[in-house]
Structure formats: C-alpha cells, structure tokens
C-alpha cells in the first residue's frame, strides 16, 4: 500500500504543473500553495472553479472527494486567524494528495471487506465549535476517570472541561496556538506529519481545526495517564442520511527517555443510534528510549462512522504499547501503522473488537521493522455476536532485510456467536531478514463445548457459562490496560453490552 | 450437604485435620461410628442425620438399569447394559481395563453431551436423571471429578468456584456470597487439600500440574459438597503425600447419607477410602461385583483372573 502511494504521489508532482494562473494557494485547492506563491486572498468560488475546470485534475480526481474536501476547507475558512505553520503544512500536503485519491471501493485491497458506502452516501456536515456554555451540565462530560484529562468535543478542545494542573513542568498539552516555547513549536513542525495515510487520513489533514499537541520533554516521566475524552455531541437522526463530521487530530511527541500513558476514549453523548462521523488521527513520535503506553477505547453510538488512524514512529530502544477495546460504531475502522526507525524497539499491540449489532469492526494494522533486534507482540481478538455483525482484521508485519534478530509474534482469535456472523482475517507476516524469530496464528471458533460442560458439571447454567467464557475471552485484552480504573470501566462496559445478546444455547 | 454450609467452615477444617487417624486398611463399618460422632458434634442444623446408621435400610440414591449409550458423533456403542445400585452411605469402586467404558459411564451419569443414551434408565434420588440438565444434576448433589479436567483460560479459579458455589446456594434458597466473603469461606478449605493459595488466582486448571489439577477437583468437591461424589481416577498422577491428602479430604466428606463412586486402577486408593463394593467393568458392562478381595486378586494376577467371560 505504501509503495502504491508513493508512486501515486510522484505522478502527481509531475503532472500538476499547470499554468500558474489556474492555481491558487490555500485551497484544496490549497493543494498547491508551494507551487504558486500566489495571493492568499482569492475567493472561494474561483478556487472551486479551478478544480472542476482543470482538465488534468478532472481526470485524476474523484469529484466526490473534492466536494467533501472543499466542504471541509470551507468550514475552516470562517475561523479568523491564518493557521500556524505546522497546521498549514499538514493541510497543504493532505490537500495535494487528496486530488489523486479516489473514494475507496471494495475492489481496493485495503477495503475489500469494509464497505464505506454508508459514509459515501451520506451528506457530510462539518461541525463548528460548540458555543453552548452549559456543556458542563452534561453529566457524561464531567465524569472524571483520571485526574489528568482533556475534553475534546466534536474535535475541539474544551479548556473549561479539562484538568491539566497536575502536568509536570515542561510537559505541554493543548492546541498549537497555545504553544509558547519556540523550541517546542519547532519540534512539532518537524514531526508533522510523520506519515501519510489513506483518504480518511487526508480528509482529516484537510479538515482538522487544530493540532492538539502532547509534548513530553527529554527524560520526563508523566506519572499519571492523560485521558483524552472525545465526545461526539452533534449527531443526526437515524436514516437522515446526514453525518456531522469531526476531525480531531493529535500529535504525541515524546522526547528521548520520556514516558507517558495516553488514554483515548471515544463516546457518543446522546442515544444509541445517533449518526455522526468521527474521523480521527493520532500521530505518535517516540524518541530514543522513550515509552508511550496507549489505551484506546471506542464506544461510539451504533449509528456512527468511526475512522481512526494511529501512526507511530519508534526510535531506538523505545517502547510502544497499545491496548484497544472497540465496541461502537456502525462502521468502525482502526488503521494502525507502526514504523520502527531504530534498533531494539519493543512494540506490543493488544486489541479487542466486539460486534454486538449490525456493525463492522475493522482493524488494519501494519508494523514495519527495518532495524535489528526489535521485539513485537500482537494479539487481536474479536467477537461477533450478531448475525449481521462483521469483523475485519488485516494485520501486516514486515520484517525487512536489516531487521535481523527480530522477534515478532502475531496471534488472532475470533469468536463467532451467531450463525451468519462474519469475520475476515488476514494475518500476514512478510519476512525478508533471515535471522528472525516469528510466529503467528489465527483461530476462529465458537465456545469450547468441553469448557461449557465443565461449568455445567459444577452447577452453573449454560447461559452463565457462556457469558463467563465470552467475558474471559475479552478479559485477556482488557487485563492489559495498564490503569486499573480503565480496566474496571471497560470490563463493566463489556459485561453490560454482552448481557442482552448472550445467545441461548 | 449441611456440613458445607459456610457457618461451619472453620469447624469443618479442625474436624477434618483430626479425622484422618484411621489405619489405611480399616473398613468402612469401623470408620462409620467415628464419622457419626464427628458429624454429631458438627452438624448443628440437622442432628437427625446422625441417627441414620448403615445397613440394609439405607435409602436408594442411584439406580442404573440396563444402561446403554453410544458416542454422539459416531454412534459407536460404548455402554452395553450397565446395572448398578448405590445406596446412601455406600462407597463403590469401579475397576476395569483401559477403554472398558468406566469414564464414559460416569460422564453419562453427569450428562456429558458426547454420549447419547440408547436404552435403560437412571434414577437418582427417586427422579429420572435423564430428564435433568447437567447443571441440575450438579445442584442436586452429584459431583464428578474429571479424569482430565479441562483448562479454562481467562476464568480465575476462585471466580469459577464462587460461581459454582453461588449456583448451589441459589438452589438452596440461601443468599449468594460476594468475592470477599467467599474467600473467607474457602481459605481454610485450601489446607484441607493442601493446595497453594496462588492456585486460586490462576485460571482454572491452566498450566496446573497433573497433581494440582486433581487437588483442584477435590477442592471443588470440598467446597461444593456432594451427595454422590464420583471420582474418576482421582489417584492417578498423585504422589504419595497428595494421595493421602486427597483421600483424607474425601473421607472427611463421608457421612452415612452420602456416597462415593470411584474409578481406580490401584488397590492403594481403596486402602485409603474403603469401598463397600467393587465392580469390574468390561466392554461396557459390569461383569463382576464383590468386596475388596477382588482388588487384591486383581493386583496380584491381573484381569485375566477375574474376567467375566
Ligand atoms: N468422546 C469420545 N469420542 C470417541 N471415542 C470415545 C469417546 N469417549 C469414549 N470413547 C471410546 O470409548 C471407549 C471407552 O472409553 P472410556 O474413556 O470410557 O474408557 P475408560 O474405561 O475410562 O479407560 P481408562 O482406564 O483408560 O480411563 C474407548 O475406546 C474410547 O476411545
Ligand atoms: Mg477413564
């Protein structure tokens, strides 16, 4: 996929050298600000025209994508000040690539099993920042699981609902515009973006209102985990074919020897089948010997689209641990990309997906090892407990030529609890280095009869036995959340979700 | 059952630790008065049970008639007309060659889905056992310790025991015990079977040694109690001390009311837990029934000496 991408990009730069007059900056236009040092004051309508009229672009661009990108861009034009350089850079790069990125179809390998037409066929509405002062009165918002927390409403940070007073000196958490240290700003500029993903990644790059930066300076250990509470407040009715979109974007930058725990939690606020689209990106850069432990909990409404990117760069001897539990969304996809950029890194990925309704849970992970003596462990589990439920796992681990003495393990287990429930798993290890230790396995099953009988033989009825076995299946991943309050919360949640859907016998 | 109510747990422990002073070869009728005495001192809620002595008047507990069964999947016959009667207070041992159907027989008793009954009947406490779900049989006081207990990753041993214990409490109309109360209840029982505390927090049987699995089965028996304890090769894989611990725990559970049906290949267990009857199973049938002397002949001369055919 990466190769395909770079090819596409190189084509772009060679063909989009159109007559200077046809292009303006700052439009999705903005795609070309670097090519044209033109005026920044052109009107929207002209830009739009540029796109639809340029014959070259018309051939390469997907009009649907262009329209969407423009809608996003327009929604941001209203905000007064010009974006700060890192954000501008992100928007430019994203816009440029968007021109050549069509909406993915089932014919594209990464979307073979994941139908995104639900999003494509909806009317997408950008959400402007919530002005309501009475936000604090929403009980879910004031619920604090962890002492350090940031509330992100429909993609916008709400300072009044965030608690950051206990941050150690030198640690920064906030929007780009609040960064006061020049050095920090410089590092952020260097790191954004650390990667380039698919259409959804690019749309986020164009539509993100800000970059929320989490900066941990050299040698600094942040003791208590930082809770990022993402709420989707705005939603449309079921069947309204309208999806309000939010594009939260976070950069986590941990310098040499630093350490932090991040808990990302995504929830809807109203009702269980509100419709919206959360299109979120987190980029993580982990310096030498630094460590990030990342907890990710996704319990969006069952009417939502939730597309999430996590891209991680690991320098030498750094540690990245991800623990994920995803249960929400009508369409939920996590794209996880981990790139090793130095030797002796440790990467541990533990994920659990649950489909209890007519929904898709999708994990696309890619781990690229290019340096010696890396260790990676991946465990992916999923349960599909509904006959219209679906789970998708594409787990790619690349052990390249220089990644000698790599120790890579990958295991996936799926539990199908209803007839016609489906799972598509594609675990794949690509090993080019020769001196490596790699293992992988994939199993799809129902509950073990012998285990069920053991419960019954001790007087426990079959329903309770099934439930215990299902919970235990999930518990292996839940138990890996480093924080016990997070563990408890998630376990309670899973129990509650599974209760009414435990199939009878 | 009364013995295993929680308010008695601490007594039960002291009682058991002093119990196993019997010479190994003592027969049941000698031991009986002792257990009666002990029971009388303990069973505060049901003194009447101590009045039931052994002898011909004991009630029927289990009656198996002409039982035949096949393997569900292949329809291959395994049991071919088993007859067995167990009365309250009796200890029965079933012996027989490998593959003769012993485990199948007891698994059928507890309702294992691998087997299908094709003929005969089983009556337990006057009820048609075959009409009962496996979990109903269990809460009705039937307990089988498995020859090879299954591992259950992800479920902690203590949670499992707690669930099982509460299922029984519910059946008895008693309040369930929360995790902390339950720990208080079982902690003393661990010593009874000489089991390490950390095995409680491990997943059920996962990574347990052979002996640890057997001790764990017996711990479950001690915690849950049983009117009919069915022990499938509880002695295999146990070291000498473990065998003694297990036998001691089982003897501690014996009352004039409850019964044991055990499968073994060795005389040694029978010297610890003295049987009232020994049955020899061959090719899916009980072909011979007698007393301890059968086991002694067997030990010396092998199955050819007592073959039913
Ligand atoms: N679930 C099953 N599937 C296939 N064959 C089975 C099954 N259960 C029992 N059998 C077969 O039925 C026969 C009796 O088995 P069983 O386990 O009852 O023997 P056993 O008397 O307990 O032997 P052992 O002394 O070795 O424990 C054996 O031939 C066994 O292979
Ligand atoms: Mg057997």
TrEMBL record, chain A:
Single biological process term from Gene Ontology: thylakoid membrane organization
Domain (SUF system FeS cluster assembly SufBD N-terminal) ranges: 87-227
Gene Ontology CC annotations of this record: chloroplast
InterPro entries from the UniProt entry: Fe-S_cluster_assembly_SufBD, SUF_FeS_clus_asmbl_SufBD_core, SUF_FeS_clus_asmbl_SufBD_sf, SUF_FeS_clus_asmbl_SufD, SufBD_N
Residue ranges of every copy of the SUF system FeS cluster assembly SufBD core domain listed in the record: 244-473
Pfam families per record: SUFBD_core, SufBD_N
Transmembrane regions listed in the UniProt entry: none
The protein's name: ABCI7, chloroplastic
From TrEMBL, chain B:
Domain ABC transporter: from-to ranges: 62-308
One GO MF term attached to the UniProt entry: ATP hydrolysis activity
GO BP terms in the entry: embryo development ending in seed dormancy; thylakoid membrane organization
GO cellular component: chloroplast
Pfam family name, one: ABC_tran
CDD domains registered for this protein in UniProt: ABC_FeS_Assembly (cd03217)
Top-level taxon: Eukaryota
Alphabetical UniProt keywords: ATP-binding, Nucleotide-binding
PANTHER family xref list: ABC TRANSPORTER I FAMILY MEMBER 6, CHLOROPLASTIC
Protein name: ABC transporter I family member 6, chloroplastic
Organism: Olea europaea subsp. europaea
Record lineage: Eukaryota, Viridiplantae, Streptophyta, Embryophyta, Tracheophyta
């Amino acid at each position: 996929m990466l190769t395909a991408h770079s090819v596409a990009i190189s084509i772009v730069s060679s063909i989009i050298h159109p007559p200077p007059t046809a292009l303006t900056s700052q439009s999705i236009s903005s795609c070309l600000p670097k090519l044209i040092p033109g005026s920044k004051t052109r009107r929207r309508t002209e830009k739009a025209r540029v796109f639809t009229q340029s014959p070259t672009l018309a051939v390469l661009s997907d009009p649907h994508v262009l329209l969407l990108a423009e809608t996003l861009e327009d929604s941001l034009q209203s905000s007064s000040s010009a974006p700060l350089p890192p954000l501008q850079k992100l928007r430019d790069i994203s816009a440029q690539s968007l021109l050549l990125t069509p909406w993915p179809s089932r014919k594209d390998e990464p979307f073979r099993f994941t139908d995104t037409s639900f999003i494509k066929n909806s009317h997408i509405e950008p959400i402007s920042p919530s002005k309501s002062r009475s936000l604090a009165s929403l009980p879910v918002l004031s619920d604090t699981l962890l002492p350090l927390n940031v509330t992100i409403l429909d993609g916008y940070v709400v300072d009044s609902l965030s608690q950051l007073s206990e941050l150690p000196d030198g640690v920064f958490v906030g929007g780009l515009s609040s960064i006061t240290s020049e050095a920090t700003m410089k590092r952020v500029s260097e790191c954004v973006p650390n990667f380039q993903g698919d259409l959804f990644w690019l749309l986020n790059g164009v539509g993100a209102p800000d970059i929320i930066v989490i900066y941990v300076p050299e040698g600094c250990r942040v003791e208590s985990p930082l809770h990022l509470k993402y709420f989707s407040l705005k939603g449309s009715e079921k069947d309204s074919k309208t999806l309000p979109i939010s594009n939260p974007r976070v950069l986590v930058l941990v310098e040499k020897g630093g350490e932090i725990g991040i808990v990302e939690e995504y929830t809807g606020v109203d009702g269980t089948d509100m419709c919206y689209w959360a299109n979120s990106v987190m980029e993580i850069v982990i310096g030498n010997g630094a460590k990030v432990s990342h907890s990710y909990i996704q319990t969006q409404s069952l009417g939502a689209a939730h597309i999430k990117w996590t891209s991680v760069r690991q320098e030498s001897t750094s540690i990245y641990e991800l623990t994920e539990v995803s249960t929400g969304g009508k369409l939920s996809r996590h794209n996880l990309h981990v790139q090793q950029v130095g030797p002796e890194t440790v990467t541990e990925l533990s994920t659990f997906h649950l489909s209890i309704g007519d929904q898709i849970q999708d994990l696309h992970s890619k781990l690229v090892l290019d340096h010696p003596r890396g260790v990676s462990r991946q465990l992916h589990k999923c349960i599909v407990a509904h006959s219209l439920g679906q789970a998708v796992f594409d787990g790619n681990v690349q052990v390249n030529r220089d990644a000698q003495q790599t120790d890579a393990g990958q295991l996936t287990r799926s539990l199908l609890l209803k007839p016609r429930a489906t799972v598509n798993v594609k675990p794949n290890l690509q090993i080019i280095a020769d001196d490596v230790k790699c293992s992988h396995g994939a199993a799809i099953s129902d509950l073990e009869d012998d285990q069920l009988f053991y419960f019954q033989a001790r007087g426990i009825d079959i329903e309770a036995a099934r439930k215990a076995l299902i919970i235990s299946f999930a518990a292996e991943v839940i138990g890996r959340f480093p924080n016990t309050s997070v563990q408890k919360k998630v376990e309670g949640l899973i129990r509650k979700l599974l209760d009414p859907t435990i199939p009878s016998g | 059952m009364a013995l295993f109510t929680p308010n008695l747990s601490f007594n039960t422990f002291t009682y058991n630790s002093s119990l196993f002073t019997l010479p190994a070869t003592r027969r049941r009728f000698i031991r009986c008065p002792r257990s009666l005495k002990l029971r009388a001192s303990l069973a505060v809620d049901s003194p009447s049970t101590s009045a039931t002595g052994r002898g011909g008047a004991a009630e029927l507990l289990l009656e198996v008639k002409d039982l035949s069964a096949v393997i569900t999947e292949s329809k291959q016959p395994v049991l071919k007309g088993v007859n067995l009667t167990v009365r309250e207070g009796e200890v029965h041992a079933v012996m027989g060659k490998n593959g003769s159907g012993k485990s199948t027989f007891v698994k059928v008793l507890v309702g294992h889905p691998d087997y299908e009954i094709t003929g005969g009947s089983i009556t337990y406490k006057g009820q048609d056992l075959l009409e009962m779900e496996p979990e109903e049989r269990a809460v009705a006081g039937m307990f089988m310790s498995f020859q090879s207990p299954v591992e259950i990753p992800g479920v902690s041993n203590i949670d499992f025991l707690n669930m099982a214990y509460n299922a029984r409490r519910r059946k008895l109309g008693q309040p369930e015990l929360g995790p902390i109360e339950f720990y208080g209840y079982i902690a003393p029982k661990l010593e009874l079977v000489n089991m390490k505390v950390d095995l409680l927090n491990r997943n059920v049987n996962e990574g347990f040694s052979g002996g640890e699995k057997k001790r764990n089965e017996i711990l479950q028996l001690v915690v849950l109690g049983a009117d009919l304890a069915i022990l499938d090769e509880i002695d295999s894989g146990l070291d000498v001390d473990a065998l003694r611990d297990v036998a001691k725990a089982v003897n501690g559970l014996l009352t004039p009311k409850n019964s044991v049906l055990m499968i073994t290949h060795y005389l040694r267990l029978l010297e610890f837990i003295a049987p009232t009857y020994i049955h020899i199973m061959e090719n899916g049938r009980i072909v011979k029934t007698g007393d301890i002397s059968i086991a002694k002949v067997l030990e010396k001369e092998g199955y050819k000496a007592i073959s039913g055919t």
